[in-house]
Every structure is written in C-alpha cells, then in structure tokens.
Amino acid sequence: MFDVFQKYLEEKIKLTEQNLELIQSVSVIKKLRKHQYLLQADDVWQYNSFVCKGFVRTYYVDNKGQERILNFSPENYWICGDKASLASKKPSKYNIDAIDASEILLIRKTDFEMLCKKIPVLNDFINSISQENFIAMQERICVNITFTAEEQYTNFIQKFPAIANRVPKHMIASYLGISAETLSRLRKQATKK
Amino acid sequence: MFDVFQKYLEEKIKLTEQNLELIQSVSVIKKLRKHQYLLQADDVWQYNSFVCKGFVRTYYVDNKGQERILNFSPENYWICGDKASLASKKPSKYNIDAIDASEILLIRKTDFEMLCKKIPVLNDFINSISQENFIAMQERICVNITFTAEEQYTNFIQKFPAIANRVPKHMIASYLGISAETLSRLRKQATKK
DNA sequence: CGCGACGTTGATTTGCCTCAACGATTGTGG
DNA sequence: CCACAATCGTTGAGGCAAATCAACGTCGCG
Prior knowledge:
Chain A has about 190 residues and is α+β, with helices and mostly antiparallel strands.
C-alpha cells in the first residue's frame, strides 16, 4: 500500500531514492474495516494520515446528539480533521471512521516534522496543501452563510461528484448541516426540473 | 508604525538585529481612512498584511446583493481574507476595507517568501499561525452547521468580546450569516434573561 | 428470516427572513 | 451652524424554508 502514497508523491514532487526510503521507514499502514474508528473523540491524535484506499469521514456529535460530518477524505487525500488534536496534543473533539474498508498511511507527528526538515521540497508541498485546504475551508464558510439548502446541495454535487455518488445521502445532509428529510425533498424537486 | 509589528514579532520569536532590519526593509505601511478599501474585488492581491492599528474587515457581496463578512482583523492580527488571491494570482472575490482608520503593514509576496527562506524561525512561526487559523476555521464551520442563530451569537460574544463591542451590530449579523433584525431580537431576548 | 440502515413522504411547527416603518445618532454640505 | 441625509438599531406583521415527528417501503446482511 505504500506504493499508492509513493505514486501520489512522485506525481507532485521530485524525490530522491533515499528520501523515499526515509519516508517509507517512518510510514505505517493501518487497515480499517467498514465502520471502524481511526480516531475516537477524547483520544489524543499524533499522526499525519493519508488515505491509500477506501473512504473516511471526520465527524462529531453535537449538543443535541446529532452526528455532524466535518469532512470526507477519499483515497489519495490527506485526512485533515485531526489537525486540532495533533497540534495541541489535547483530546480530539472529532471522530474519524471508515465509510468503506480502508487502508490508511500513518506518519507520527515527530517523524513527519523530521521529514519536512530534511526534505525541503516535501515541506513546501505540504505547506501548499495546507494553504489549499485553508482556502477550501473559507470557501465552505461562504457557501454556508450565503446559500439556501438547495443551493448548497447543488454546489456540493457539482463540486464533489465522486463523493456525492459514493456516500449515503444522509451523510451528505449531515455534511451540509441540513436534515436528511430536507435533502430527500430537494432531490425530488431537482429531478422534476 | 513598524515598531508595533516589531513588538509583535519579538514577543513571539527571537530575531537578530539583522533579521529585523531585513524585515523592515521590505515592509511598507499603508494608511487607511475609515471605509477606505485595502483590496477591492476583482483586483489581484500580492501582499501579506498585518494590522498595526485600527480594524479591518474582509467581505464579499453575495448573489442576492448582500454583504457577507468573512473575517474581522483587529490590530495585532494578520489579515487572512486575501489568501486565495495571493496564492492563485487571480482576481480576488473579496473586498477588504477599514472599519476604523487603520495602518496596515504590507510585505510583498515574493519578499515574504524570501524572508521565510532566510529566517527559519519566522517560517516556523508563520506556519504555526496558519495552522491556528485553519483550526479556527474548522471550529467556525462546526458552529455554523450546528448552532441556532442565538447560540451562534452567544458563542461569538463570548469568544470575541473585543470585536463584539467594537463593530456595528449589523456587521456581526453579517459575519454570522443572520439578518440584522434577527440579531436585534436575539439581543432583546438575552437581556430579559 | 428478521433486523437495521437507508431513503422517502406526509403533517405540523418554528426559526428566521423579508418588507416596512420609525426613533436616535452621526456626519456633512450649503 | 443648521438642515438634511445617511447610518444604525429596533420593532411589527406576514410568509416561507427547513426542522421535527412519525410512518412506511426497500434493500442488504448477519
């Protein structure tokens, strides 16, 4: 499974043989069955993680007991819901679990920092990803405070068609912050048009 | 005004005399009157910017013609609403203008990258700020998709009392994504309790 | 086979928006 | 310096979008 990650990296940046070996030496693969947790709320998280295979979600349970999905992480993406706990070393507020059977590549925080120090091109790459994520997040806030439920859903399927086809509808509703019933009705209306 | 920025930096990281001079050599101060634009939508933005004095907001105009505030940046904070244009070199979707008369320190993107290259401790510091911002953003999304208007407002004043006291109410409403009328009614209710 | 996950539909309620109007304050140009 | 305009906050009336509560069909799985 490391080869998936390797291929991903090689498409983005130039790495020497030694660097790749160094990265591999600190990488661990974790297999998850469907519904299995990668991280449970109240645990401390200490890894950077990349989805080699499968599909993962980050969510939390709100004060009314509802599951709220913060993020989907399909294969070939970093999981970015765990940053808060990773940075603060405090127990996580979020859960991460597998939507499909998955294989996750883990790199311990300290190892990851070592890698970034030793491989400047990796460091730059990671920073550019962080920046992209930040911009995407900002985008999402705009969508959230501006759009109606319908507009949000349209925007979502047009932006993430792959995810939209792959996860249950009620999870999309949870991600958008609307009820599953409302989403169902929106979909019905949309087909009419 | 550079001294405000210098003081800010020195509280956070150790810098040599030369490094400080280097930073100062690429810094420019821009004064803004109340209501003056720092950045207007459709312009390209190429600076990292820090508020030395005053108060600034980042906002956009939605498809219904409403102003939506994405961010407030008080003094001693970086302005982080301009990242998308800065990264992509594309015209900005956002406007930035002064809520109060302000003085903004600007560092051109290329100069800023040079600084980060030459001053590792600055680079690390900037990265940690980016991370904090990212986490705050994530937090905001949670609040947004979970909370009612009332909960959001309570959360806001408790989290940013300084901002809450300083900006007009209708801007807070705009930031939260609720109407000014609703906010007014919430406030009325709150005083009753 | 039976149970749970998923999606849908209906009825009802409600939180928030929109439109409109009005004081209070601030700012500004003649 | 006063008059008038603009900004800000508030209040009321009415309407709508979405939540909630409830029930039901379908499918896949243990």
